[in-house]
């Protein structure tokens, strides 16, 4: 299949016109990869069964892992889902933005989108290109992250091209995604409390300012126990993983340095905070990639998936990284990194 690439880092009138063409094609059944503020999405017509079947196929994704419906305005959620007062409060506080809310689905949503669940995940991205595409499509856009199933989510068009070129009709290149980690996913419980299913840039602390009780699902921090039922099917799959094993280190910067010296090698990649990089480069043969200042975890979020892909490109046989603190955006980092590392943590 011929994949058309639309460059939209600095969109002008002509670019917006081409995005509208891609939107019309999406409504008619085409697959369109588009940028969002979190990661790139692999979009198809959210009301069309065949389009969702094509999405699962293009990604190589198991069809029991449901898709998120993307809308241009939170008010549109009402057409596809049963909207509650808590949803409205969340929408006022965080939409458009990096929050996904799981609601009871209406009949209009194909069961292929929800993977047979009675619920549907709704998200309203803030990225202008994403919103323009959804508006132009005139239908909700079903979109998982635009990576091959199991590999890190794409945060720039080059990642998408590496994974999906010739599997989709359009790729809209909007440059680097600002946040770099997928949206926060929450579900409202019958008692009005929220369960956090996947942490993201909308943190538990932020959610607690809007909703009294926010519970963090066990699966956010821990591996599933055999036979345990999952609230969010995505949690049971190996995720975000680079090809080389990733090992996370828990300890002080001095302890990390000691560990790296003892485990040095030219096929090793170390993801290190900016403060540590110079000393590391002086004392190790390993390839040391900076993930920004430790006090600014947003930078690690922004580059994490790109760094995991880069480590693979460099032919890494082993990747080391510090285990982040699990507060604020750090909880989202902790959740992605611990899965990418298949829960391998070395306590120093
Ligand atoms: O930031 C994002 O959310 C990106 C961009 C493209 O919007 N999308 C994304 O989609 O990360 P995906 O498919 O890679 O992850 C969606 C997650 C999956 O883990 C899935 O299991 C969960 O959402 N999910 C979808 N529908 C659900 C539902 N009805 N109940 C519980 N979890 C659901
Ligand atoms: Mg994904």
Structure description:
- The protein has helices at residues 13-27, 49-59, 85-94, 128-137, 157-164, 204-208, 253-262, 274-283, 297-313, 329-340; strands spanning 4-7, 32-34, 41-45, 68-70, 81-82, 99-105, 119-123, 141-142, 170-173, 184-188, 194-198, 214-216, 246-250, 268-272, 287-290, 318-322, 345-347.
- With 348 residues, it is an alpha/beta fold.
- Helix 1 (13-27) packs across helix 4 (128-137) and helix 9 packs parallel to helix 10 (329-340).
- The radius of gyration is 20 Å and the shape is globular.
- The structure holds threonylcarbamoyladenylate and magnesium ion.
- Residues 36, 38-39, 41, 65-68, 100, 102, 114, 117, 119-121, 123, 125, 143-145, 182-183, 185, 197, 232-234 line the site of threonylcarbamoyladenylate (TXA).
Q: List the uncertain runs.
A: none
H/E topology pattern = EHEEHEEHEEHEHEEEHEEHEHEHEHE
Strand content: 15-25%
Name the average pLDDT.
Answer: 95
| Total strand segments | 17
Main sheet attributes: strand count, strand direction, barrel closure: 12 strands, mixed
């Amino acid at each position: 299949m011929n994949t058309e690439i639309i460059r939209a880092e600095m969109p002008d009138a002509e670019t917006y016109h081409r995005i509208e063409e891609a939107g019309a094609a999406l409504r008619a059944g085409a697959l369109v990869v588009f940028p969002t503020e979190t990661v790139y999405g692999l979009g198809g017509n959210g009301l069309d069964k065949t389009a969702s079947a094509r999405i699962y196929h293009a990604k190589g994704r198991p069809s029991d892992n449901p898709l998120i419906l993307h809308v241009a305005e939170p008010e549109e959620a009402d057409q596809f889902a049963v909207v509650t007062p808590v949803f409205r409060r969340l929408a006022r506080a965080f939409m458009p933005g990096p929050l996904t809310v799981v609601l009871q689905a209406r009949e209009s949503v194909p069961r292929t989108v929800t993977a047979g669940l009675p619920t549907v995940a709704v998200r309203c991205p803030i990225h202008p290109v994403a919103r323009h595409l959804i508006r132009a499509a005139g239908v909700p856009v079903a979109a998982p992250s635009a990576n091959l199933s199991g590999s890190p989510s794409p945060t720039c068009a080059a990642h998408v091209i590496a994974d999906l070129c010739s599997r989709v009709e359009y790729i809209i290149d909007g440059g680097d995604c600002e946040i770099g980690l997928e949206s926060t996913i929450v579900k409202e419980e019958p008692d009005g409390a929220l369960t956090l299913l996947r942490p993201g840039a909308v943190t538990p602390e932020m959610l607690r300012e809007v909703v009294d009780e926010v519970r963090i699902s066990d699966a956010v921090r821990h591996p599933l126990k055999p036979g345990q039922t999952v609230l969010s099917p995505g949690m049971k799959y190996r995720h975000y993983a680079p090809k080389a094993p990733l090992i996370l280190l828990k300890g002080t910067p001095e302890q990390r340095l000691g560990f790296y010296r003892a485990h040095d090698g030219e096929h090793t990649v170390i993801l290190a905070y900016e403060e540590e990089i110079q000393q590391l480069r002086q004392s190790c043969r390993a390839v040391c990639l900076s993930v920004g200042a430790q006090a600014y975890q947003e930078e690690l979020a922004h580059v994490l998936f790109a760094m995991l892909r880069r480590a693979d490109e460099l032919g890494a046989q082993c990747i080391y990284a510090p285990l982040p603190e699990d507060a604020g955006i750090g909880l989202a980092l902790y959740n992605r990194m611990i899965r990418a590392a298949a829960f391998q943590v070395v306590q120093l």
